[in-house]
Amino acid sequence: MKHWFSDLVAFQRDPLNFFLDRGKAATEPLVPLAMGPYAVMLVADPELVKPIMKAEEAMIDKGKLIYKLREIIGRSSMTLSGPDHKARRAALHQQLARGLATSYVPQISAIIREQAAALAVEGRFEAHHVTSRLTLRVICNILFGPDVLSAEDETLLIESIKLVEDDLAADIFKVLPDLPWVRARKKARMRHGRAQMMHVVERAKDRAGQASILRALDALKLPPEELGDEVLLLLLAGHHTTGTAAAWLLYHIAADPALAARLAAEARAVSDDTGEAVPSRLPGAATSLAVVREVLRLYPSAWWLSREVKQRMELGGRTLKPGTSLLISPWHMHRDPKYWANPDKFDLERKFAGAAFLPFGAGPRACVGMGVGMLELQLLALEFAAAYELRPLAGPPPGPKPSITLIPPPMLLGLRLREVAPPPTPPSRRSPVSRSDLAKKRENAPATVEPSLVTYLEYALSDVGEIDETAASLLEAAINRLRLVGGLDREGRRAMN
Ligand code: HEM
């Protein structure tokens, strides 16, 4: 016989398969779940997502499942509604809007290169360990401004986040209360994690850059406690989601050398002659975008979303009472064979047009950091593939572990510098290039093309009377390679000039 929590055990034992099995077997758009004293519906039909996510707040809003997050992220964009939410969202949007996100290209690329160069020394790394740190550095840069946090502060933030997130995930679907001493221990961990994060925020606040999110939030004149809530939300939402997806992304590049070679070629095509990615070329970089989308389909970091019915209403052929929770699982929708052929296969030829693809949610509460998240993942694919050859050091990994986001299993990857082959030049077509030719080439370079590479070649060859084209292209490849491993950045070349 079914009782009011008969689905809870199956859910808690294996939440991912629970959502997937119930969603796949659904014969109605809404599937009732017995998960506690309140009515809960799994939204099985993707066509209902937009009507739910775009409904007036007075009808459908965030609800009790999300409010459990208030213990950590308090009164922040994720947990507020109405005018308070709108004001916060507008401030975040100012810095994160899709078009603006591309202004972060140089700083995100620099962080990826620096981190990757450090990995090259070891030659192997655990994917999520590296990507979670990397994405935290990126969100810190955007939140506080470039280079505001010290390495020690970054480490403190990572540790604090670890302290809070597992307990938080376990609490969300809990029906029975914890024993008092378990509860007290959890509370103490959360308090400690939060206090540690606030300590870092306080230290960084006065040094925050003018074009940073922190300044935009500061302009709202929030009470200090709420400014802290917002910062914590951004650290959690901005790094955890991207960091978990990024680990899978590196794994898939490592597992498919042909894909990695395509990405390396794409990286060259989107770069200017100094090797920097040109933001306006990124939307046309089809392979890296397809990799990012397919990773987000297979491993949607936000694997469930929830809303609550606020007024009695008709939806999906049912009458819903106020207080009914609506669960939407991108994990289910992204892997249901009704909407995707071979849903478990990593396939870059897919079309992503339908309503069953929602890694960033939908409507007015869709992810405000979507532009930055996509950009980070795309640059990660391009930068790593351009400079390194990755390979998995173990067999295929097991599936992800559901927590607040989808945590990847340990994935050990090897990496070594990619050989950059010079463009082939048949010996018969070699022609001498004199130093005065190089100088002329530099003078004639269009203003938009940075002439430092030519200048550097000239400098490097100052002892040689003349060189042929093959030697010049070999040197060019060597310089590119130096740049890719962070050995010679733009500033370095300027200094040489
Ligand atoms: C791959 C990366 C990311 C994924 C998959 C992701 C996913 C999501 C999803 C699904 C939502 C909607 C939740 C709901 O409707 O209940 C959301 C909201 C949010 N995300 Fe992201 N996110 C990512 C990256 C980021 C980044 C980089 C930032 C910050 C820079 C960020 C900040 C936020 C915030 C503040 C909200 C709340 C928006 C609101 O309620 O108005 N996210 N995210």
TrEMBL record:
Coiled-coil features, chain-numbered ranges: none
Oxidoreductase among keywords: yes
InterPro entries: Cyt_P450 (IPR001128), Cyt_P450_CS (IPR017972), Cyt_P450_E_grp-IV (IPR002403), Cyt_P450_sf (IPR036396), Cytochrome_P450_monoxygenase (IPR050121)
UniProt binding sites for heme: 367
One Pfam family cited in the UniProt record for this chain: p450
Keywords of the record: Heme, Iron, Metal-binding, Monooxygenase, Oxidoreductase
Entry keyword Secreted: no
GO molecular function list: heme binding; iron ion binding; monooxygenase activity; oxidoreductase activity, acting on paired donors, with incorporation or reduction of molecular oxygen
Cofactor: heme
Entries under PROSITE patterns matching the protein: CYTOCHROME_P450 (PS00086)
UniProt-annotated stretches for the region Disordered: 418-446
Family, per entry: Belongs to the cytochrome P450 family.
Protein's UniProt name: Cytochrome P450
Organism annotation: Segnochrobactrum spirostomi
